[in-house]
Structures are given as C-alpha cells and as structure tokens.
Amino acid sequence: MKKSKVLVGSILAVALIFTFGASQAMAADTIKVGIVLPLTGKLAKFGEIENKSFLMALKEINAAGGVNGKKIELIIEDTMGKPDVGRSAIEKLITQDKVVMLGGGYSSSVTWATIAVAQQNKIPFLVNTGSADKITEQGWE
User: Fold this and answer.
1) Which CATH code for domain 2-136?
2) Is the dihedral of CA 23, 34, 76, 129 positive or negative?
3) How far, in Å, CA of 127 to CA of 141, rounded?
4) CA-CA distance, 96 to 94, in Å (whole number)?
5) End-to-end distance of the chain based on CA atoms, in angstroms?
6) Among residues 44, 51, 38, 114, which one has the least CA distance to residue 83?
C-alpha cells in the first residue's frame, strides 16, 4: 500500500506541476481531480471496483498530508459505459468543477471519446484501463 500511495501522489504532483506550475496548482485549498467511471449500466461492476481503489488511495494520500500539504478532492462522474455520457462528464469536470487533472477511463470507447476533450483543454488524463491501440498509439501529450 505504501508504494501505491507514493506512486499515486507522485504522479498527481508531477502532473499538477507540469500543467499549472507549482505555485498555481498549490494555490487552492484542495486539489480537484476528476474521475470518470461506469458506475451504472452493464460495466458498473468493474467501475465500482476501480472507484473503491480511487477512494482507498484518496484516504491514504490525504491521511499522509495530501500532495505538498494539499488534500486531494475527487469528483467522480458516472459514464454509464457510454461515450457520449463520458464526454459530457469530462466537459463538466473541466468547465464547471475546474479539475486540474483527470483519471479513470474504464472502457476504450468511452476513453477515446473523453481523452480528446482532455487533450483539447490541456488537462492531464491518467487512463486506468482503456487500452485500445488507437488510444495508446495516438501520441497524446
């Protein structure tokens, strides 16, 4: 567990610094991270497993002081396993919730639809499971 906490915390910190610079990312009281997962629909069983993993890591990271002293706040959205719902969820997380990075992406079809939105908005997206060749070979930044 300790290695996973350090790894997740390090990934978050690096992504935040590259995206906004250390001072801007750390200016807020919390670090908002958007998560997109299928929590309802036919893929809900798998989405719930990943959701529990995110919540477990969140608890550990925040209990250890967060990232550079800032607590992480996860904003979790349900994609229902549908690309159009996932795209809307990502747009909401970026424009309304003002997340500084994204995670999740269970199915490749949903991930493909959502990652383009993250890329257009220059928001880092740590993809968990979407692994279709067109995602991994795209050359996203």
Assistant:
1) 3.40.50.2300
2) negative
3) 13
4) 6
5) 29
6) 114
CA atoms within 13 A on the CB side of 121: 21
This prediction has a pTM of: 0.78
Name the nearest CA neighbour of 67 among 13, 123, 115: 13
How is the chain split into domains, by residue range?
2-136
Dig out the tokens for 138 from the structure: 């795209």
pLDDT band at 108 (very low <50, low <70, confident <90, very high): confident
Cβ within 8 Å of residue 69, ≥6 positions away: 26
pLDDT band per the 50, 70, 90 thresholds, residue 136: low
Residue 84 in tokens = 């159009």
Sign of CA dihedral 58, 62, 68, 72: positive
Q: What gap in Å lies between CA 121 and CA 26, rounded to an integer?
A: 20
In this prediction, residue 38 carries a pLDDT of 95
Could you tell me which of 72, 88, 63, 79 has the C-alpha nearest to residue 128? 79
Q: What are phi and psi of 21, to 5 degrees?
A: 85, 150
- Which among 58, 34, 56 has a CA at the least distance from the CA of 126? 34
